[in-house]
Amino acid sequence: MSPTHTGRRKGRVTRSPRPAAPQPSNTGLDLSGINLNLAVALDALLTEGSVTRAAKRVGITQSAMSHALAQLREMLGDALLIRGRGGMVRTPRAEQLAAPLHRGLLEVQRALRNESVFEPRTSSRRFTIASGDYHAATLLPPLLEILDAEAPGVDITIRPLVVPQLEAQLESGEVDLVIAAFPDPFPALRQQRLFREDFVCIVRRDNAAVKRGLDLETYLRLPHVLISPRGDGAGAVDMALERLGQSRRIGLRLPYFLTAALAVVRSNHVLTAPRRLAELFQDLCPVRLMPPPVTLAPFDVLQLWHERFDDEPAHRWLRTQIARAAAAPRGTR
């Protein structure tokens, strides 16, 4: 974001002729006297935790950033960053400022971008998507194929899905889209179903225990792989078995879908996983897919976004391409 000198008077943005005089405290700050360059500098300082790295991030000298930090300390009446054992650390006041300041600057950036028309073939826009490895693995190949053909300059960043921060990240624009399966809706977010998914069992191709099929007795006798993002808890299979008065042995518990599928290739373990992921591994590894011997309810995979971006042309285009990738035939996924 390129810093500009702006202020606000009577609801109108005006150009400030010079930096504001420092304030002795953070009480009753007059926004018309705040240099936006200082807000950009503060965001960089709180993000990087280093004067040197913050200066490089903004594109100014280290001396200029040190001067900006001195102005900010005087204006806000707080040290903001102090030296700790591992370098500079935020004060409690700085911790309170960091997230809302970053969101606010992103909002200003989006407002000034003013993309009334989005041209995918010439755009160099970067989109950020929060998703787990399963959804990324199944949707990225067809999505990248679309981008190569229709938007060669558009870049994608995939970030881990952090549910407690999900709504705030989408509202601020820090994350453009979330792709996931959620049993409970988010009333504040828009959502679109990309596809309905069901479960299959994955076993290695030469697993002698399942040559005659995978009945419930065999299923319970085999060790299982459980995908558990937090490393604990039970899955849909365990709840279905509990209704039958049965339980299974979890031989391996891990947080990653892709590693879980690889775990069965050279073991007697069985993995019960979403069909799209299983089909991906069937094409790549010596595994067999078999129907589960217990009834498991299907689930919906969604893309979610904040209503603020409903009508943004670039955002609308991205959602359309994600939906196209989800609908691509298996051979092109």
Automatic annotation (TrEMBL):
<keyword id="KW-0238">DNA-binding</keyword>
<dbReference type="InterPro" id="IPR000847">
    <property type="entry name" value="LysR_HTH_N"/>
</dbReference>
<keyword id="KW-0804">Transcription</keyword>
<dbReference type="InterPro" id="IPR036388">
    <property type="entry name" value="WH-like_DNA-bd_sf"/>
</dbReference>
<dbReference type="GO" id="GO:0003700">
    <property type="term" value="F:DNA-binding transcription factor activity"/>
</dbReference>
<dbReference type="Pfam" id="PF00126">
    <property type="entry name" value="HTH_1"/>
</dbReference>
<feature type="compositionally biased region" description="Basic residues">
    <location>
        <begin position="1"/>
        <end position="15"/>
    </location>
</feature>
<dbReference type="InterPro" id="IPR005119">
    <property type="entry name" value="LysR_subst-bd"/>
</dbReference>
<dbReference type="InterPro" id="IPR037402">
    <property type="entry name" value="YidZ_PBP2"/>
</dbReference>
<keyword id="KW-0805">Transcription regulation</keyword>
<dbReference type="GO" id="GO:0003677">
    <property type="term" value="F:DNA binding"/>
</dbReference>
<dbReference type="InterPro" id="IPR036390">
    <property type="entry name" value="WH_DNA-bd_sf"/>
</dbReference>
<dbReference type="Pfam" id="PF03466">
    <property type="entry name" value="LysR_substrate"/>
</dbReference>
<feature type="region of interest" description="Disordered">
    <location>
        <begin position="1"/>
        <end position="29"/>
    </location>
</feature>
<comment type="similarity">
    <text>Belongs to the LysR transcriptional regulatory family.</text>
</comment>
<dbReference type="InterPro" id="IPR050389">
    <property type="entry name" value="LysR-type_TF"/>
</dbReference>
<feature type="domain" description="HTH lysR-type">
    <location>
        <begin position="34"/>
        <end position="91"/>
    </location>
</feature>
<protein>
    <submittedName>
        <fullName>LysR family transcriptional regulator</fullName>
    </submittedName>
</protein>
